[in-house]
Amino acid sequence: MPHYILKTLGCKANLSDSQLIEKKLQNRGWIPQEGSHNPIDLCIINSCTVTHEADRQTRKIAAKLSRDHPQAVVVVTGCAAEVNPEDLSQSPGVHFVVGNQNKIGLVDQVLKKIEIQSQTQITSDILNPKILGKTKKYTKLLSKHPDDRDWPSVTESFEMPPTSLIGHSSRTRSFIKIQEGCNSFCTYCIIPYGRGPSRSLKITQVIQQIQQLVNQGVREIVLTGTNIGDYGTDWNSFSCLEDLLEIILSSTNLERLRLSSLDPTEISSRLLDLMSKNSRLCSHFHISLQSPHSRVLRTMKRNYGFQEIQDCLKRISRLSTGTPSKPNQVFVGMDIITGFPGETNEEFEWSYQALNSLPWNRLHVFPYSEREGTPAIKIPGVVPKLVRFQRAKKLIQLSLNRLKNDHQILLKDHLESQSPIHDVLLERKGDSPWISGYSKNYLRVLIRSEGQTEKNQVVSVYPIDLMIDSKNHDVAFIGKLKPTKV
User: Fold this and answer.
1) Could you give the CA distance from residue 98 to residue 73 in angstroms, rounded to a whole number?
2) Tens-place pLDDT, residues 457-477
């Protein structure tokens, strides 16, 4: 049987794409790598291109896979393959490049090439053209979608998600990509060019996917996409993400439904009301904030300011009633870019103090990284890289301090009340003696394997200590399935 390796970089939308690629490969008899003893015939990198570092990482992985598996065909797909396929095709070790426009046909196209090569001595003529499909390099980025790209409709290219998937992209929680593409064109972002215009699955197709996954034993589904706040706007005159959520919760037996990233203005009163009334909608928000400073946000071309951010977070905080151990305590994570062009020292200090005063649980901090072709690289007032990293370090420490403080309060509350953390979905074991899981409100929990604990179980865990992960700026509870006397 032929074996493959698949590496996924970047966002959860890429992970969803990788799951469909693995499904198609496994349906054709391909097997994911199961150790170092099997010869590898195919390596696929599902790339990200959000920064220059992401591009560099893609090229580095491709070169290493080619060295480690010289007989394998190395394929790069994803956003980097869509935005600049010509340069990527010349990278060491890369045999084929397939852009996002043609990702749905990747397996058919690549396996056809491999079949030809298996019957013929490999020559440079057989490997040409390296770029499969219609993708070509963008010559200009004009903050609009060009007419010469043939983006597939997600409705027309609809596929049922894989069930009982094994391999590199398998997860206990299932990801359903309900929407693809973006029309916003923020000044720092190249993703609209890599993913195309916003387009969405029909509600009936989403429900069909969810019902199949539930029938296969999936307990939690994460709705993901390039910009899920735009869900439905391509075929409806108003945003209907809330409509979709209500129908999912009323017409399926799904135990847990979780949302991926939303902008502050996309977290509506209707959405908050739905979360407060239905515990199956996980009390967790990941907010694509980028900055709290209104002038910086305008320069980024974000459609909100500090007042909207403050209002959003205060409305979310009002949902978090009761004691810290109650499952309706809403967890809020936020993405932050620091060192954006033009951000002065005074603006950063203001932003730091503003964030310190707002209700949230964790920051995901990124020092600004230039991306060729985006308007942001022409904005005056470039912040030195050392300053960017210094600012990022300060924000990361702010986040870790708050996360530790929140968890210490929660731990004390649980120990005193002898109450468990409810609804922890066990996700994976791997080679570690620890099993990891998350509660509905995104509290990470670690328990030791005791034989009977398997992934995809929902359990109550009694916390006994904390694990501080300084490398990943994270905190988790260490717990047991049975209460421990204090």
Assistant:
1) 13
2) 899 999 999 999 888 899 999
According to CATH, the topology of domain 419-480 is OB fold (Dihydrolipoamide Acetyltransferase, E2P) (2.40.50)
Chosen CATH of 3-132 out of 3.40.50.2300, 3.30.470.20, 3.40.50.720, 1.20.1300.10: 3.40.50.2300
Task: Identify the burial level of 415 via C-beta atoms within 10 angstroms of its C-beta, where 0-12 means exposed, 13-18 middle and 19 or more buried.
Answer: middle
Bridge-based pairing state of the strands 444-448 and 434-438: antiparallel
- Say which range, 12-21, 275-284, 322-331, 395-404, has the weakest mean pLDDT: 322-331
Rounded Cα gap, residues 48 and 266, in angstroms: 25
Q: pLDDT-derived band of residue 168, with 50, 70 and 90 as boundaries?
A: low
pTM score, two decimals?
Answer: 0.90
In the numeric block, which tokens belong to residue 301?
A: 């071309």
Element (H, E) at 18: helix 12-27
DSSP assignments along 199-267, one per residue: EE--HHHHHHHHHHHHHTT--EEEEEES-GGGTTTTTSSS--HHHHHHHHHHH---SEEEE--B-GGGS
| Pair of tokens at residue 61 | 């992985």
CA of residue 200 relative to chain centroid, distance: 17
Question: 152-161, 353-362, 390-399, 442-451 — which is least confidently predicted?
Answer: 152-161
- For residue 102, give the DSSP letter: G
